[in-house]
Amino acid sequence: MSGVRDDPGMDRTRAAHPTATPLGSATAAVVSVVRRTVDEVFEGVAGLRRDVESAFAGGTTVGRDDLAELYPTLTAPLRMPGGLAKGAGFVAAPQLLADAPWWLEWWVREPSGEPSRLVVDVDPDGEDFYDYTTLPWYRDPQRTGEPTVTGPYVDYLCTDDYTLTFTAAVRNGDAFLGVVGSDVDVGLFEAIALPSLRAVPCPATLINAHGRVIASNSPHRRGGSLVRDVDVDALWEHGTVAGTRLARCGNFPIGLMY
Amino acid sequence: MGTRRFGRGPRSALFAPLESLSRTELVTHRLADAIMLGLLTDAEQLPSETALATGFGVSTVTVREALTALRQRGLIETRRGRGGGSFVRSPAEDTTEVLRERLREYSPGTLRDIGDHYAAISGAAAELAAERADRDDVARLRSAVVTLETAARPGDRRRADGHFSIEVAAAAQSARLTRAEMALQTEVGPLFWLVMEDDSAHGLAVERCRALTAAVDDGDGPRARVAAQERISDAVGNLTERHLELVRQPRE
């Protein structure tokens, strides 16, 4: 932590002479909370992926009605009381379904308990149509084949909320069928991470790969803003830059900067 | 009358089944959009209530409510008896006429006030976008500018222009500003997009959007705000001129 005093903008005075153990265990606790949360969401996503893949495994034509049969499993994460997901579902690759060239089978949590289907303009000639294949939550798992965390971002395609989206590619052999995923409200994610963040005895901030702030124990790091006073690319690459460290929270682009 | 004649081309999606949770508003929006976009033309007879209900996959009660809403908006008229039914009232060519009529009713002062509100929202969104946009956000803004630039038909230009503004608000990372932008587009968007039928106004809008994107890319908030405000100011200027032109002409 030699460089902390070179950063007058941040209140790091309490971190000037930390004993390694309290700081280390406090940051490890944050990482563990984030990992557990992310794992829980991806567990639900993996379940969705298995169900959608088996629906397409038969090789017969699949239409919207067949997806409707997936309703119980697609909405399972949204029925769990106190569950993290506020939205979940399957987004089909263009021209995949027999009766709808573009389709989102996406459901959102409702206060009443019964999830409702999100109605999006999927008519390419429609006023509100949007080509979702260009959006990161669709494009990135398609490109990499890896589960992806997108955000925080304003989800203007669906709920217009500030959102973290967890998606995974759905495949049938080599064929890419689309993505399954879950949305988590950034505010909820923040609330889950905050108690452990507050136990860290120096400014500590959860950021994504772009250096966008997800949650922080410092009022100087506002949610949604970009970290610009630290070289975030270098931080992700080397794990430490000028006394600022980054602890990765698993294999996902969420890191704890402190 | 059946729905068969709606079964081809871009209109086929128009009468495709709606989702199980569809509501009166959805049916209303779908039909209103189709009328505004000219997919349904003037004097065209709509399918019967039963056929619409089957086509949309909703109850006849829902269809009846939607038709009432469309009638109240003057988009259809219903004739009773033999040869009766619901008929489209606003052909695509006349959509611009409807907007012109609306523009005639706004005073220059009202236009100025709408512009002030719009400039406040989009200016703030642009300034924050410059502070907060990451590489992906900037890439999406650039691609939205290209879409706007290559859009030839007024409808495509309108849609591209709307998307660009929503991308800016989303790049600001503000859900509230994004919703405010969307609400303004719903309220006064069609009027503002009237200017898009004019090629030189379209060219100017593309220039402003490009300048805004460059400012966001440079992280220059004040410049981004100015570009966003100038964009609104251009449109208000254009609309005010049109308004004055309209009130100079005698009403029929």
TrEMBL record, chain B:
A Pfam family this protein belongs to? GntR
InterPro entries in the cross-refs: GntR_C, TF_FadR/GntR_C, Tscrpt_reg_HTH_GntR, WH-like_DNA-bd_sf, WH_DNA-bd_sf
Q: Give yes or no: UniProt keyword Transit peptide.
A: no
Tell me which PROSITE patterns the record gives.
HTH_GNTR
Q: Which SUPFAM superfamilies match?
A: GntR ligand-binding domain-like, Winged helix' DNA-binding domain
Print the keywords alphabetically: DNA-binding, Transcription, Transcription regulation
- Domain (HTH gntR-type) spans 21-91
Could you tell me which PANTHER family the record lists for this protein? GLUCONATE OPERON TRANSCRIPTIONAL REPRESSOR, TRANSCRIPTIONAL REGULATOR, GNTR FAMILY
Q: What is this protein called?
A: FCD domain-containing protein
Origin organism lineage:
Bacteria, Bacillati, Actinomycetota, Actinomycetes, Cryptosporangiales
